[in-house]
Amino acid sequence: MKENDFIFGVDLDGVVGDFYGAVRKIAAEWLNKPLESLTTEVSYGLSEWGIDEFGGYERLHRFAVTQRNIFSAMEPIKNAPTVLRKLSKKGIRIRIITHRLFLKYFHRATITQTVEWLDNFDIPYWDICFMKDKRAVGADVYIDDAPGNIVGLREQGCNTIVFSNSTNRGLPGPRADDWHEVEELVMEAREEWRTGTIGLFA
Question: Is 5 a catalytic residue?
Answer without folding.
Answer: no
